[in-house]
Design a protein that fits this description.
Elements: H1 6-22, H2 31-35, H3 41-44, E1 48-55, E2 58-65, H4 72-85, H5 95-98, E3 101-108, E4 112-113, E5 125-130, E6 133-137, H6 139-145, H7 149-159, E7 172-176, E8 178-182
Antiparallel strand pairs: 1-2, 1-3, 3-8, 4-7, 5-6, 5-7
Length: 197
């Protein structure tokens, strides 16, 4: 994934907001029309992403695609809609809440295998998989909670619904890095990390 400029980050945030706002009007956001615009290569490249919605400092929705074959701008628009209307932990976002919602986007690198001793808090996000169970935590989550690498591994296993020591007992470990940016210009205090899309 090529680095995103501040302008590209701002454009993706605006696109996410437009995608959500369009659901409250008769005019839907036509991604085919958006794709005809002179978009920069980084936003046209396939990439995984998470879109997090925060309201008054509290999580209001978060959905992501760990990997995507779609261009980044399409992934972001789809995840924004899913975070607003299909995160099972929250009721669908009503029109009157939209203005007070802050949008954050995390653009993910491709996954790569990692050994437990290589995990670096604040740099790596983690995906733990065992059988049909998997759990993901974004890099910023471990930093915010002040976890050690071992705690980060344990919490990611717990996120997957596994025993906290599953990372020692055959669970597959993969990592990724993420570039996170938000409408506030800084990371919100709380993040979600369920790979529900």
């Amino acid at each position: 994934m090529s680095p995103l400029s501040r302008e590209e980050q701002r454009w993706l945030l605006e696109l996410a907001r437009r995608a959500i706002a369009a659901q409250f009007s008769a005019a839907t956001l036509d991604l085919a029309e958006v794709s005809k615009q002179s978009l920069s290569p980084p936003v046209r490249q396939p990439a995984g992403a998470f879109v997090t919605l925060n309201r008054q400092g509290e999580l209001r929705g978060c959905i992501g695609a760990i990997q995507s074959q779609k261009p980044l701008f399409q992934t972001v628009a789809g995840c924004a809609l899913a975070a607003a209307f299909r995160d099972a932990r929250f009721p669908p976002l009503p029109r009157e809440e939209l203005e007070g919602v802050e949008i954050e986007i995390s653009v993910l690198s491709p996954l790569f295998a990692i050994r437990p001793e290589e995990v670096r808090v604040g740099e790596h996000g983690l995906l733990v998989t065992q059988g049909f169970q998997r759990g993901l935590l974004l890099p910023q989550v471990a930093s915010e909670h002040g976890w050690t690498p071992e705690q980060f591994l344990e919490e990611t296993c717990a996120k997957a619904g596994l025993a906290q020591d599953a990372w020692k007992k055959g669970a597959r470990l993969e990592a990724f890095t993420a570039v996170a940016f938000s409408e506030a210009g800084e990371l919100p205090r709380r993040h979600s990390d369920s790979p529900q899309a």
